[in-house]
What does this fold into?
Amino acid sequence: MPLEKIKRSSLKNKIFFSITLVILLISVLIALFTRWVLISSLTSELKRRGLGIGQSIAESCRGPILTEDIPQLTSLLFDARLGERKLLIVYVYIQDKKDRVLAHTFTRPFPQGLIDANPLPPDQPHAIRLLKMTGSSVYDVAIPVLEGIYRIGNVHLGVDKNHIDQLIGKLRTTFLGFVSTVTIIFFVISHGLARYITRPISQLTRVSDEISRGNFNFSVPLENRMSGEDEVRQLASSFMNMAQRIKESQVRLQESEAKYRSLFNSGPNPIFALDQNRHRILDANPRAEAVFGYSREELIGRPFSDLGPIDDSGQQCFGGKNEEVAISKVQYAKKDGSPIHVNVHAIPARYESVDALIVATTDISEMVEKDSQLIQASKMTTLGEMSAGIAHEVNQPLNAIKMGSEFLEFMAQSGKKIPQADLLHVVAEISGQVDRAVAIIQRLRDFGRKSDFSKNQVQINDCVRSVIEIIGRQLTLQNIRLDLELSEGIAPVMAHNNRLEQVIFNLLTNARDAIVQRQESGDEDLDHCIRISSGQDNRHVRLTVSDTGVGISDTVKDRIFEAFFTTKQMGEGMGLGLSITNEIVEDYGGTIRIGSGIHGGTAFVLTFPAAG
Ligand SMILES: Nc1ncnc2c1ncn2[C@@H]1O[C@H](COP(=O)(O)OP(=O)(O)OP(=O)(O)O)[C@@H](O)[C@H]1O
Ligand SMILES: [Mg+2]
It folds into this structure.
């Protein structure tokens, strides 16, 4: 548990405790080692001195032992304990070779226990053993007394160990004092050191706390030490750099967030944020509310598909989650159900930590309306131009009706009886011609009707035939032959028949104009014709309109799809035909290519994706 406590304690305490502990450990180890060295050297010195004294006694007592002069031996022993030695040497006694005690320095009876306490083995120069005596410890030093090679006795002297113990006692106190002083000094030093090291770190911690709370204008003073060059200073400076960077990027983030918000809120177009997986609306700008008629609360959480597309024109949706998608001219619905035409641009992005699609829509309803007005105007102009041919066309059934009715009138006036069979034939003829006239007028009406942007499966050959029925007669009147090479069984295309008819109409009128121009320039004898062919290659339906007209120069070719570009005289052409044609073809995902026609004329090749 104390280990846990230490782990959880502050860095300052950890530094402080570890320094104190290490110093304490080192001082104790030094003290113990010094004590051990001192004790062992003192002990060996003591023993060495004991041996020295013992040997000098053994030298001088050889004679008295041989003569067994006990008084002499006794005085020798007492002499050996004279002066300072008395403190060192506790006792001395001499034995003869049979270990009988000949003399000793004890003032009381000789303690018999001593005799066997430290036996001197034969052939040993000495023997030393620590003995416990009453009140003290004594090193018994035994030295043989030799006469030549014979041992004639032993000298035993007791060296007082208390002498060393007192010294060691004094040393212990000194060491204890030393360790305590060192510990106290280092306690203070390590406390200061720990504070010195950890104070700037604590300050940095406080600063980082402020930053994590989002406060970059922290007021924590970073002390002078941070101006040094040590690691803490480096840490502080890189930390402050980092904080500065975070602050700057935070500011930039807030700015861009604010910029984005203001763009989002004040943008002129409806913008939606959808979640990438289910395409539900996460957010919508005020413009989206205004245009689509929903409140923001109604929009949020609603599937984007609730708004559109409401026709087949925009079936393609935001497929892949991570790609940009642009869909043009699709019909969406407002809350009240009224349609609205929009261009849609979706880009994947992160929105409030969610994978999102930012969908920007542009309301092009007005533009679409203007376009269709323009298309209509152009159509009406063409119809006006075609009026001579159309009048001729309507005139024929009228003539037939006139002839029939005149016949009936003549017969009635002349009082002749009309045979039943003739009457029926004339009436049927009149009725048939009326139907024909009605059909022509109906076709004109259909063509003149304003078309919308809806799409359905259309047979391109049918459109060609409808147009020919309107302007075929006109072409014949202008000596232009029509070659139809329509392949049957080709796939339909996704389009609106009225618009496709307008495309074919424009191409035919252009071809006619180019031929007329060539005729006027003297090429009258040429067999002038317009060839319309259809076909299918793989997934594409193709329609080619070739003519024997004047052809198109490269400089004109580059500009023919521009609106209001024309080479025709004022009043003859507005220069809108091909630009409208191009727009319609693009709307249906098709292409237009210009190639060579018949006898140096021009060919327009249209392709559309096959439907179904
Ligand atoms: N089949 C063609 N042969 C030669 N030139 C052509 C042909 N089709 C178009 N052009 C050239 O392209 C120009 C632009 O054609 P476009 O149909 O856009 O306008 P326009 O026919 O001049 O006028 P509008 O169609 O509005 O009556 C024409 O003026 C003509 O010079
Ligand atoms: Mg034209």
Observations:
- The pocket of magnesium ion (ligand 2) is lined by residues 506, 509-510, 573, 577 (CB under 6 Å).
